[in-house]
Amino acid sequence: MIIFRLIGESFRFAFDALRQNKMRTMLSLLAITIGIFTIIAVFSAVDTFRGKLQSSVDKLGSNTIYVQKWPWSFGDNYPWWKYMNRPQPSLRDFAALRERMENAQGITFEISTSDRTIKYRSNSVEGINVSAASHDFDKTWNFELQAGRYFTETESNNGAPVLLMGADIADGLFDGDDPIGKQVQVLGRRLTVIGVFKKEGEDMLGTSLDKNVNVPVNFAKSVLDIQNERYGPQITVRGNDNVSLEEVESELKGLMRSIHRIRPGQEEDFALNKTTIISNQLDSMFTMVNWAGWIIGGFSILVGGFSIANIMFVSVKERTNIIGIQKSLGAKNYFILLQFIFESISLCILGGLLGLLLVYLVSLLIGAVSGFYIILGLNNILLGIWISIVIGTISGFWPAFSASRLDPVEAIRS
């Protein structure tokens, strides 16, 4: 009960100091407010970007590996000359993997071509992406259909002139009419619409299917040279749910080396790309941004800490006679010490809450202007309060310690 009463009195002293010296206290708290605002704003922005990017990466599949010619790399020194003469993933590779792979729930051969036009009667949609994939596309890619159905195995094997289209394309061509069963023209051929992808919205990696048309790869063979590098052929392998990604990658690497007849010790002529490469790069990038936020905000908080310490020394000076009276009535040193430390913490928490409020208001403003809403999460709110408590404790300790060591007689006489 004494501790709670002590905390209550400390808050009352803090707010009395704020009320009696508004300008002095607010200017001293300004550095704390700016520091907390900078750190929490950076962390909130990073968490929001990380969440959106990670959700985009997750759409590619956390247990999915892409067999491609070029490895994914984000460094400055990319040895492109080593990979130029590599062969493209081929239908032969795909057939061999599908026959011999044991730990895969789905394997697809995929190509894509961009900036195409699709037409229906007098309506057309330009700038679409046309993808062709083998039958297991629904097992290696995360998507839902809002209308129609997926390809049958017979349609995939025979290369039937059918397609799935994105929601934006369906809206642009049919103006709200049912697209299922309608014939459209794309790649110079007439194809029948059998399904429409559920609208996803644009993500930060541009992996949305909203402006995408998907056809069976055996149909695309009759229209395009699907093994040409310009169409980016790749083999997508999604491992079984009960098998680790490392195990799937190890089996896939062994099979590809066997299919390409690569001798032991010889370097691979293919790349196995996975989403963890992107995730690790995002982690390192955002870690650097977080450190920048700590450094920039840390200087403001350091200045704020000195300001709070200055306020507390002034507060001790102004209340020296009160301290003498309290000690003469039996107040222990720790009581005086905790009283001023709690007062310092109260002032810092007030500055921290103002900083958090500023982050919230700025995030609302950015969201209203750009449509990109920065999320102020509970973890960052608690972090801001924790930083305020730590700074308040450090800044208030020496003034509180000096107050607790005052001689009661000398303090009353002052």
UniProtKB/TrEMBL annotation:
What's this protein's name? Answer: ABC transporter permease
Tell me the keywords, alphabetical order: Cell membrane, Membrane, Transmembrane, Transmembrane helix
The listed locations are: Cell membrane
Pfam families linked to this entry: FtsX (PF02687), MacB_PCD (PF12704)
Q: Give the membrane topology, semicolon-separated if more than one.
A: Multi-pass membrane protein
Instruction: Give residue ranges for domain MacB-like periplasmic core.
Output: 25-253
> Looking at the record's lineage, which domain of life comes first?
Bacteria
PANTHER family membership: ABC TRANSPORTER PERMEASE YTRF, MEMBRANE COMPONENT OF TRANSPORTER-RELATED
| Gene Ontology molecular function, alphabetical | transmembrane transporter activity
A Gene Ontology cellular-component term = plasma membrane
- Source organism (scientific name): Pedobacter agri
